[in-house]
Fold:
Amino acid sequence: MKILLVEDELKVVATLKMGFEEEGYEVDVAYDGKVGQHLALSNSYDVIVLDVGLPYLNGYELCTLIRRRDATVPILMLTALGTTDNKVEAFQLGADDYVVKPFAFRELLARVQALARRATRASPAELVAADLELNPQTKVVRRAGQLINLTAREFALLELLLLHKNEVLSRPLIAEKVWTLNFDTGTNVVDVYINYLRNKIDKPFAYPLIQTVIGMGYVLRDEPGT
Structure:
């Protein structure tokens, strides 16, 4: 599981990062709202842990910006502001949970794990873009009603693109999610598998869905030119 921690208290960051990593989680850290915004909108996370009192962009503002781009990523607010009004505002802006400082790490960990499980269970039964359909349970892929046979790796890559349709995904992010490896700039494995997918789900059909964004990565769009 990959966690984004947006927190400006160094001691809290050190404690949480060590605790999450001891549980086997990968943790990205941002010490202010602007960096948090950049990381949240350019990467994929299982849970975002967000302080309220942040420099540049506060937690409420950042939560709002994240929700405009991603309606599903779980967001947990972690803050010393513990009034009912504080909590209500956070939930109204799209937060999924709210923990008041000081806190017990075991409770925070349990809440993070619960949010991640809930997000997994809530994943859609079928992923669709234009006339392309993918069923994560049956592993069936069709375009324009035509059955398409994919290898396991091709399926995982297509599922990732559909889960983030209309969102540009970088090569390092794709490599991490599909191959669970750090991206080696000397390898073209991502480009090779994108080409495999294009040969199966794009070239035989009326228009391509997978597009290259030069210098940034790849995106699967609902329709051409959007």
Summary: The chain has eight helices and eleven strands. The helical segments are 10-22, 33-42, 59-69, 84-93, 105-121, 152-163, 171-179, 189-202. The chain has a mean pLDDT of 88.
